[in-house]
């Protein structure tokens, strides 16, 4: 189920909302939690019905393992805990690997050995990359003894809470479980509902009014790469996709955060104007912040050791971005994308350690330029396609004033929308800053109403979120 649909906005959300707070009103706290869990299960089943039994089994299995890890504390259980954690983590990675990387593995075996094993064409379940991370985090924290007080309902709410279930933001149990336990959050708080609608409306507009048309146009270009691409088209569609990708992801995050507010649950911020960054280290501190936080906590910190040469900052960073690249997609282009991003982050760190103060006036455009270039590698189906686009970017022989005029005239709406998107990225405040100043008055409510009305009138043109494919 997609947030920006009539089914979600007019049926699922109001029914789930009313049922949850009515049950709380009559002090049926456990039933209210169960209602929200069942609604979240239904939400997921609508997107991946065939995978749902496996999803349910994974959720239950991880709870059993996590509970076992919480109980086996103390040095005398060190071996058992280690083995149980390994089994749990490997089971999660194995499930993710089967659905996401089977064809990648077969392709590489065929290439190396010259064999012809048939591809399985397994359909990737929605959200598997995201909830797998949260399940692994739960197991690791259970191993550390940080989840002892959580019962099965707390655990289920943490894993399945529908706003963040499919594409994040990736939440930590310590952030969300106490909020569900807080009795002050068991009643409707109209200011929170109004603020949630305001944030949701902004996210919906980002997705439907900016991301969807730009993604459709840019994706068509990258799906039909040819030789001798024109320079102007190569640059425009690369910038177009870079803009659309940000608005698609941040739009989903805003909608998830807005939905959280409606249920009195504060979900962490996920984007902080990444295209305003003046170097790649700062860029990744602003981009998909909860994913960066997870990778930092569970990958980087397990590799990095201060004073150990072979486990220093640069090695730990490259390992972290290698994992990030491989996590994003089953292809060597994604691995290369991760490695290049890691190298750019290391370069930024090295420059800073040399005492160089990177100025905004040149740091910002250079960072955005490299963000465009690595995004080409990310969206291209093959290295060959990426090379053709890069080659087209410097195909000066195709530059003619008449060609530029024709391209702008024929595609003026997407050129204008890309310019508007860049203007928003560079000159307007983040949704977080706007919502921090929110007041329940006619001005903010009218703003949200206008955005939602425009979106609802266009919901016959729904495009899936880009991260559904990851």
Helix content: over 70%
Overall 3D geometry? globular
Number of domains: 2
User: Low-confidence segments, ≥5 residues, pLDDT <50?
Assistant: none
Number of helical segments? 20
Using only C-alpha atoms, the radius of gyration works out to 23 Å
Descriptive overview:
By secondary structure, this protein is mainly α. The protein folds into two domains: 6-187, no CATH class; 192-278 and 359-469, no CATH class. It has 20 helices and no strands. The longest helix is centred in the N-terminal third of the chain and has 36 residues, at 78-113. The model has no long low-confidence stretch (mean pLDDT 92).
Summarize the structure.
The chain has 470 residues and is mainly alpha-helical. It is built from 20 helices and no strands. The longest helix has 36 residues.
Tags for this entry?
single chain, 470 residues, mainly alpha
Please specify the SSE layout and strand pairing.
Elements: H1 6-25, H2 29-47, H3 52-71, H4 78-113, H5 128-143, H6 152-160, H7 162-165, H8 173-181, H9 190-222, H10 231-262, H11 280-286, H12 289-303, H13 313-328, H14 332-353, H15 360-379, H16 383-393, H17 401-410, H18 412-427, H19 431-436, H20 442-456
């Amino acid at each position: 189920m997609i947030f920006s649909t009539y089914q979600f906005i007019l049926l699922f959300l109001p029914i789930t909302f009313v049922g949850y707070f009515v049950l709380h009103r009559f002090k049926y706290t456990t039933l209210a939690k169960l209602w929200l869990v069942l609604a979240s299960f239904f939400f997921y089943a609508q997107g991946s019905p065939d995978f749902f039994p496996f999803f349910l089994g994974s959720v239950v299995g991880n709870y059993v393992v996590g509970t076992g890890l919480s109980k086996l504390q103390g040095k005398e259980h060190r071996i058992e805990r280690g083995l149980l954690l390994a089994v749990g983590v490997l089971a999660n990675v194995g499930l993710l690997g089967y659905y996401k990387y089977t064809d990648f593995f077969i392709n590489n075996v065929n290439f190396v050995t010259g064999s012809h094993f048939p591809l399985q064409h397994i359909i990737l379940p929605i959200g598997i990359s995201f909830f797998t991370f949260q399940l692994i985090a739960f197991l690791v924290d259970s191993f550390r003894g940080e989840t002892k007080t959580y019962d099965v309902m707390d655990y289920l709410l943490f894993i399945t809470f529908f706003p963040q279930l499919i594409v994040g933001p990736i939440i930590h149990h310590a952030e969300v479980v106490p909020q569900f336990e807080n009795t002050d959050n068991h009643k409707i708080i109209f200011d929170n509902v109004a603020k949630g609608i305001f944030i949701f409306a902004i996210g919906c507009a980002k997705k439907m009014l900016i991301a969807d048309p730009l993604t459709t146009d840019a994706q068509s270009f990258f799906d039909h790469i040819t030789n001798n691409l024109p320079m102007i088209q190569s640059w425009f569609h690369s910038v177009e996709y870079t803009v659309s990708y940000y608005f698609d992801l941040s739009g989903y995050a805003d909608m998830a955060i807005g939905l959280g507010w409606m249920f009195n649950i504060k979900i962490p911020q996920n984007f902080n104007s990444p295209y305003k960054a003046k170097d790649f280290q700062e860029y990744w501190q602003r981009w998909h912040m909860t994913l960066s936080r997870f990778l930092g906590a569970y990958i980087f910190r397990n590799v990095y050791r201060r004073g150990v040469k072979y486990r220093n900052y640069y090695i730990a960073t490259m390992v972290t971005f290698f994992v990030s690249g491989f996590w994003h997609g089953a292809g060597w282009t994604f691995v290369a994308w991760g490695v290049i991003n890691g190298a750019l982050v290391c370069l930024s760190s090295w420059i800073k350690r040399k005492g160089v103060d990177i100025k905004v006036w040149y740091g910002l455009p250079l960072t955005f330029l490299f963000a465009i270039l690595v995004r080409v590698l990310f969206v291209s189906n093959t290295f060959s396609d990426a090379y053709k686009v890069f080659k087209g970017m410097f195909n000066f022989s195709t530059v003619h004033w008449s060609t530029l005029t024709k391209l702008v005239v024929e595609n003026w709406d997407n050129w204008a929308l890309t310019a508007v998107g860049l203007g928003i990225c560079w000159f307007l405040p983040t949704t977080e800053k706007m919502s921090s100043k929110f007041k329940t008055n006619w001005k903010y409510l009218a703003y949200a109403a206008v955005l939602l009305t425009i979106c609802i009138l266009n919901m016959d043109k729904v495009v899936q979120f880009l991260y559904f494919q990851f």
